[in-house]
Amino acid sequence: MGALVAAPQEVPYRPNLRIAVIGLIFLALFATMVLRLWSLQVLGQKNATAAVHQNVVRVVAVPAPRGEILDRNDRILAGNRVQQQIVLSRYEATVDPGIIPKVAALVGETPAQIDQALSDSQYSVYQPVPILTGAPMATIQYLEEHKSEFPGVSVQQTTERDYPLGNGCGCVAAHVLGYVGPITAKELRDNPKAGYQPSSQVGQSGLEEAYEPYLRGVEGKDELLVNAQNQVVGTLRRTPPKQGDTLVTNIDANLQEAVEGYLRQVIMADRSTRDPTTGVYPAALDGAAVVEDVNTGAILAMASYPSYSLNDWVGGISTAAYDALTQGCQSSLGGCPLDNYAIDGLYTPGSTFKLATATAALADGLVSPSTTVDDTGLFKVPGCNTSLAGGAGAGCQFHDAEASGAGYVNVTKALAISDDYYFYDMGYLFYVDQKQYGPTPIQNVADEYGLDQVTGIDLPGEAQGRVDSQAERELLHKEAPAAFPNTSWYVGDNLEMAFGQGATVVTPIELANAYATFANGGTRYQPQIAAALVDPSTDKVVKRFTPRVVGHVSIPPAAYSAMLQGFEGAVEYGTAASTFQAFAGFSLSQFQIAGKTGTADTAISSITSGTDEPNAWFVGFGPEPNPQYVVAVVVSQAGYGAQAAAPAVMNIFNYLVTNPIGPVQLPSPKNPPTTTPAPSNPPAGASSAPKG
Q: Which carries the bigger pLDDT value, residue 63 or residue 368?
């Protein structure tokens, strides 16, 4: 301490100590510097490298080609076409704005359109912006010869959807396949970890949407070197994209085209044929057809009318084309091309619903196969007054629509000739004996057949049918009081429900699946369009879709036999006999068909009033005794089922008779996918099938 406060001349001179202290200080500073350098260069090496890399490298996603969609015979329903695309560098357009009008003139657009493309935020700032896809070869050659006049303009290859069948019309199985479009902002927000980019194209409907995770493939990456001006100066590394999986479907392309053609054909005929009962020309606004394998649930064909061309969506649909497609979609009357009426069309089922009523009556013991009812043509509710029958909605008296005054009929004949009186009686008996059978015996069986629930088919947008009941009315009233003001349930309502009227509505896929369930003896399968997913690079099966049982209907053997005879009788001598004779090119002994007509009022009033044309149904299955196919056709506001829907079903069976559906073929090196249509035989009794 003395040395610290003493004067300099009083302190002894000790240079070695001072040098040692200074040395220690420098040593400590040097050690600190070494430690910091070690921390930066060793511990922080990865972060530093990444930061430098980020400053000079930009990663850009490279879209992957979508997986192909094939039919069961290895035919390409939706493929990919390589297109030449003219692109423009944003940097060059900024440095030299004069290039914009030159490019506009080259591709036949306005400078404003080019500016709009350059400002589109869906494209990365490090990628050239697409200006023209599908550029003509003459334009590409001109660019090659005048490169110096178009700085920043280049040609690159891209892929887009292609639909080779139907001569490239894009109209074969349009609703089943669905279309691809730009990803929406909502889809980006909802899938933050899926790797989508603002420029991604995703499935927006049909199979394209349902199997998007498999079809989209794996995007590639371009690691681009950029300078301080964000100008790309080179490519550091490129990871190629991986094409999406191939989706093999249960659809038979030739059958699909034939079904679409027959559906359109019958609708055109309905519109031009005066209804003999009402005296008017039916509107026949829309319709649908479904062909299903009754033993597996596989959907072999599915058609909806009106339809559209998938080509309209390739490269982005124009405003004019979209407006034209959606023009009729705001109407509640139907006729929207974008709707798949096979899965989202809700139609009153009419007499086709008698499948559920007959099953319930026979299975519950309400009637036996030999029970007869005397059809006088006019069913009067015993002891009825209007208020107890259901007010103005139902009434006390019910007329036959087709089999008026048929005399004594049992369940077999009632199904064959579509005798309403018999089913009025079933509805009445169930209503008055609720203590024994419960309040909803018919609805319970309809539920077992799946008529009040979605089938689970692998397509988005499926609607759910409903079977009329008091509980259902209360639910509808709660959701929309003005549209469904009536919540009561009277005997007349039970009668209407028993023959498929009232507020009951079903989709074609639900009804087809219900009849498939009956046809195979009571096993309800989930309808399935996809058969397998295959890796296109290895031809290995990624996933196989096997039949899935989702329910059972218990049908006593005697009941099944009586009903089957009725469905066979509908074709042999009943409501569809004349149609079968006119349109079938084969005999029942060769290929026996069973079926049921349906004529369903669209306004909860008598179909003979002339105020509205009924929905026309026909569902057929065969060949008996070991049925393989069920075919369901509906046409809205078209008239009687036998005349307005049955011809299409009969023609579809004409095709199936001569073109039985074989097993699904998976792609392989020896059997690669092809665009060549599979060979087919002329339908029975015809020289050729109509094209879809």
A: 368
